[in-house]
Every structure is written in structure tokens, then in C-alpha cells.
Specification:
Layout: E1 2-5, H1 10-21, E2 29-32, H2 43-46, E3 56-58, E4 64-66, H3 68-77, H4 89-117, H5 123-126, H6 131-134, H7 137-158, H8 171-186, H9 195-205, H10 220-225
Parallel strand pairs: 1-2
Antiparallel strand pairs: 1-3, 3-4
Bound molecules: glutathione.
Length: about 230
């Protein structure tokens, strides 16, 4: 299997955590995609994923699977013993509900703020984004506020249970964790009063599959290289 991604980026980090959880690291070859040079917006990559985003999983027979949730489902079920996406109907539903909320309130909103409210990944990629949106700072700011509201929402959830979808660490936790990595890079901090979210983050950071993969180095080298 091949994974097209870039180390240190938030959605790729989701899949790297899944690979570690499932002991699949050694089964995968990573192919680095140069987001700063907008390699993912060129025809060769768009043929793999028309959304022009990473990660993308390519199976040995050439089958392509994009979208981190879909890739997670595939990897989690490969051994017939899913541990991150639920086994019972209720577990599956709860995880997918929280997973989607995590994407809508945290990862997607951070992504919009990062690309339109900050210099993002720089000029080469910015050309593929909508310039008229970049001019609308208040639109980006609204997404920053959405992220803060999302953090407070999940703080409330985590005041009632150890992990986002219940008693067990799941795909939804991984998505929020990756979203917080991206929030750091975008300069959006967890509000001081969100103590349950902070404690959950500290706990998740210590999981063997997450430790040393937490992406604290998120694109830092790339951004420095381009003076962003
Ligand atoms: N919904 C996608 C989101 C993937 C995504 O946005 N990936 C980022 C990297 S963390 C990306 O490729 N960004 C490039 C861009 O927005 O141009 C997923 O779940 O995989």
C-alpha cells in the first residue's frame, strides 16, 4: 500500500496514528506530496484525488481511497477486528456522529481560517484558492470563532466521558487531535477554561500511537523556508 501525504500535516497525521494503532506502519510506503509547491493541484495528483487534498491511500492493485474517514474505515477493518470505528450499531453511529462534528466544527473550520485568515502555505498554493474569499477577513474570522465554539462544545462532551464518542479512544478523537495540531499552526489556542479538552489532549498525546507523531513540528520547516 502507498500513502500520499506529507509528514507533520494534520490530516496525514490522522492516518499515521491509525497505522500505528493497527500496527500497519511496515505495510505502507509513504509518498511525500509537496503542498507548498501546489503539487496536489496538478493533473497527475488530481487524477488520484479530484479534491486535490492529502492523504490518499493507493492499494497494490491501484485502487485509490481518499478522505481520511474512508481510509480509516478501510485500515481499521483490514484485520477483521475494528478498534477505532466501532463494532456495534450504537458505537458506529456515535463515532461517526462525533467524527463529523469534529470535522465540521474543528478541522474544516481551522482549514478555512488557516488558508484565508493567515498566509497559509504561501503564494504557489494561494493561486488555487479563491482570492475574493481571502479579501474577506471577517469570513475567516467567523471560522476562527467557530473553532473556539467547537473547542468549547467538545470540552463539554469530555466533561462527561473519557473520550469523545464514549469510553474508548476512536476515530473521532483522532480527528479532533489532528484539528488541534492545525489550530496551533493557525494560531488558534484552546480557551483557558476548556480544562477537560486540555486534559484530554494531554492524555491522548501520551498514547503510544500518538507520542512522537503529535505534529508539533507542523509544517514549521516549510513555513520558515518560505518566510511565512
Ligand atoms: N476531507 C479531507 C481533508 C484533507 C485535507 O484538507 N488535507 C490537507 C492537508 S492536512 C490538504 O491537502 N490541504 C491542501 C489544500 O487545502 O490545498 C480528508 O479528510 O482527508
Amino acid at each position: 500500500m502507498k500513502i500520499y501525504d506529507r509528514e507533520g500535516f494534520p490530516n496525514p497525521a490522522r492516518i499515521r496514528i491509525v497505522l500505528a494503532e493497527k500496527n500497519l506502519d511496515s505495510k505502507v510506503e509513504f509518498v511525500s506530496v509537496d503542498l507548498i509547491a501546489a503539487e496536489h493541484k496538478q493533473p497527475a495528483f488530481l487524477a488520484k484525488n479530484p479534491a486535490g487534498t492529502i492523504p490518499v491511500l493507493e492499494l497494490d492493485d491501484g485502487t485509490l481511497i481518499a478522505e481520511s474517514t474512508a481510509i480509516t474505515e478501510y485500515l481499521d477493518n483490514l484485520d477483521g477486528n475494528p478498534t477505532l470505528t466501532g463494532t456495534t450499531p450504537l458505537e458506529k453511529a456515535s463515532i461517526h456522529m462525533m467524527q463529523r462534528r469534529a470535522e465540521r466544527e474543528i478541522t474544516d473550520a481551522v482549514g478555512i481560517y488557516f488558508h484565508y485568515g493567515t498566509p497559509g502555505l504561501g503564494e504557489a498554493l494561494q493561486r488555487y484558492k479563491a482570492p475574493e474569499w481571502a479579501a474577506r477577513k471577517e469570513w475567516a474570522e467567523r471560522h476562527r470563532e467557530q473553532v473556539i465554539a467547537g473547542m468549547l462544545y467538545f470540552d463539554g462532551i469530555l466533561s462527561t466521558r473519557p473520550f469523545v464518542a464514549g469510553a474508548k479512544f476512536s476515530m473521532a478523537d483522532i480527528t479532533i487531535f489532528a484539528g488541534l495540531i492545525h489550530a496551533d499552526a493557525a494560531g488558534i489556542s484552546i480557551p483557558e477554561k476548556a480544562t477537560f479538552l486540555k486534559a484530554w489532549r494531554a492524555k491522548v498525546s501520551e498514547l503510544p500511537s500518538v507520542k512522537n507523531r503529535s505534529g508539533q513540528h507542523f509544517v514549521a520547516e516549510d513555513l520558515r523556508r518560505f518566510g511565512l
